[in-house]
Amino acid sequence: MQRDQLAAYLDDLLETARFRDYCPNGLQVEGRAQVSRIVCGVTASQALLEAAVERGADAVLVHHGWFWRGEDGRVTGTRKRRLATLLGRDINLFAYHLPLDAHADLGNNAQWAQRLGWVTQGRFAEQDIGFIGHPARPAPADGIAADLARVLGRTPLLVGDGTRQVNRIAWCSGGAQGYFEAALLAGADLFVSGEISEQTYHLARESGVPYIAAGHHATERYGVQAVAAHLGERFGIGHEYVDLDNPV
After folding, report:
1. Which residues of 33-44 are buried (b: 16+ CB within 10 A; e: fewer)?
2. Both 87 and 169 in a single domain?
3. N or C: which end of the chain has fewer CB within 10 A?
4. Are 42 and 63 in contact (CB under 8 A)?
5. How far apart (Å, rounded) are the C-alpha atoms in residues 36 and 236?
């Protein structure tokens, strides 16, 4: 598939134009014009780029790309090495941040919920990033934590009343601890995210609504895989997910 056609298709599929984000979404680094093989992963780290080179990829597709708002823009050190790896091998870099969290079918939140059997009934928080609905079955918070451990392959951190029965659950992948109060206003019995902050711990204890931090990386592994699989089915593009484990 032609690179520019692929970029336009992904921008339309993930509705990038409707998001106010902290980074540019879409094609971040231009490589060769034809894309027949994609390596995808959570973050455009040096290790992922090297994996893409080893696999002969034409493009890298990630959730966490580069050029974040407010960071130093000088091309030195780590940034120079990363760019040199892509430019030296003529590999494209596609990155989708908030659009990949929010997509109703292929996004991180949708894919994560699908694996756990959670049913989406609505959205909440800024730009409708957060999802809210009900678990596969009513269960105490510590039971849902056990389900998360089984599905995500890591032990989540549960703060607050683990015995509270959960009929209405709110969730948002990654660093979404700032949406906890919005989840409370939306009537959630439990909020699940990737990370937790110091002040969030106290809010979970005092509000009576437990909070589960299931891991930033662990909760954002699925969107890129779903998008790459979609491209494979629709256009015949070869794709491979490379999971570089991250405990955070």
Report:
1. eebeebbbbbbb
2. no
3. C
4. yes
5. 8
The residue behind tokens 């494209």 is 92
| Strand residues in the chain grouped as ranges (E) | 26-29, 37-43, 59-64, 92-95, 119-124, 130-134, 139-140, 157-159, 165-166, 169-172, 190-193, 211-213, 238-241
pTM higher than 0.85, yes or no? yes
Under-50 pLDDT residues of the chain: none
| Residues 184, 140: Cα–Cα separation, whole Å | 17
112 lies in the same domain as 207: yes
Report pLDDT for 159.
98
Domain range for 183 = 103-217
Closest C-alpha among 80, 130, 87, 100 to residue 40: 100
SS3 137: coil
Quote the tokens at residue 206.
């005092």
Say if 201 falls within a structural domain: yes
Beta carbons of 242 and 51 less than 8 angstroms apart? yes
